Amino acid sequence: METHKPEDSIFELLTTYNELNSSRIEELDEEPSPLEFMRYVARNTPFVVRRGAEDWTATRTWNAGVLRSTLAGHRVNVAVTPFGNADAPTPDGQGHTIFAKPHEEDQDFGQFLEYLIRQEILGSVGSGQESSKVGEVRYAQTQNDNLRHEYVTLFSQVEKSIAFARIALERDPDAINLWIGNSRSVTALHRDNYENIYVQIAGRKHFVLLPPLFQPCVNEQDLKPATYVRAGGEGEEGLVLRMDETVEENGDGAPKVPFATWDPDAPKVRATPYSHLAEPMRVSLEPGDMLYLPAMW
Amino acid sequence: METHKPEDSIFELLTTYNELNSSRIEELDEEPSPLEFMRYVARNTPFVVRRGAEDWTATRTWNAGVLRSTLAGHRVNVAVTPFGNADAPTPDGQGHTIFAKPHEEDQDFGQFLEYLIRQEILGSVGSGQESSKVGEVRYAQTQNDNLRHEYVTLFSQVEKSIAFARIALERDPDAINLWIGNSRSVTALHRDNYENIYVQIAGRKHFVLLPPLFQPCVNEQDLKPATYVRAGGEGEEGLVLRMDETVEENGDGAPKVPFATWDPDAPKVRATPYSHLAEPMRVSLEPGDMLYLPAMW
């Protein structure tokens, strides 16, 4: 535990916030009205609607077989990394932290899904040495409104928009994205300047949420970007990081990426003097659950 | 104009805010719905509803005669200062700025109103030396829910609550206050941690509003508090500031008051390096106009 001077206003701010706010997420049993939703937006506070999307066609019907047949013959964009570290701060092996971007490639959807399932089975039975052989991590995680483009054949099976949010915010969704991964799919601590409604269709996802106020805890740094490329064949040993090429005249390399380098799940690593004050809100979503993730959380 | 280093993030923040936001207040023609209001709360943005309260009994009927007869014989709390500087940063004559609190006294309502009117007439015809003889400033400005207490006989003539705000915020008003003054009544730049709906019943009021972000412009300082006392008879020459007595064991005097010392209407005085970046939102209210003044503005 650090010691702080009495006049450390950031320390005071964060500890006061913790005293006044619970790190338990608010749980609703049904979708809020637009006005109720707007109260959460005004307070910049997340909530989860348990089973709020349980009646969606997608929630009721999607499984591996349905997806496989619906998307048979489709090719989809897949992010490939050795450790699930797509768009994540990553040690470069020489004492620095860099921003690792995934290798992206189009894969046949059926083969992609097969890989996810086999890896999941292999990973759950393997241990020790074996688990290090589970291979590269593949995650369909584009954020370019893919459910109205790449996966448009599935779009009719979800709600076109979330009514309470559309009415409250007076706009249709900017983007609707579908993400498909397995238990190795990870997204690094980050923030978006968007109000997000996340719906769990199948499987489970575990969120770790920090309020914007806890910015002093996350150790944001300007990281040099690098991208994984396939050096050999498939498998994590075949992926190597290559620094992004310079696009600037000063020859300093590609523009650096400001990014949180602290991980609430490895709280001793790359910590700031304030990191230990962070009390993340943790929430696990089950199929049909709906999460409001406020902008900048 | 100050020069700023390129890495001055406060400078960047304030200039970017100015680029992205208008300093013109949004004007509505009718009261918003609770949901529409909540959008303003979420954006922490003021608006004015022109003539939103024009149908109130108070707006339609109040004038000096009505108030005089309704409150005949009542005594009301009046804040008395030489310059309208009630709860305001004030030079102490020895190079320091102190926090001046008004002399408070109960006055017969009829005599109080008569004083306001006579001073207004005198002030509007006087000039130069004459105008310095207009005398002390009197302002009925208590904030202790006075319309449901001190002025309860008038309460039936205003709305018991502002429906759009009550429904949106899910609570009745914490306080409903009536303020009565003349053109010499001034309130120093300050902020409250309350959502406020201000309704102009009679006369005009000129607001100068700054967003919370512009905190670096206002030169907040810890000021020693002092209170006006009547040393002689009536008139500004009779009011002197007396430092508040110590209530602390360390003998340093009464606890200091953190308060903005910069005045947007005297922008060169007590300025910070950021004060010139402030682009205050100015709005004048006419009878029946309604202003949403967000918390912390």
Automatic annotation (TrEMBL), chains A, B:
What InterPro entries does this protein map onto? Cupin_8, JmjC_dom, RmlC-like_jellyroll
The residue ranges of the JmjC domain are 147-297
- Highest taxon of the source? Eukaryota
Q: Which SUPFAM superfamilies match?
A: Clavaminate synthase-like
User: Pfam families this protein is in?
Assistant: Cupin_8
* Protein name per the record: JmjC domain-containing protein
Species the sequence originates in: Xylaria grammica
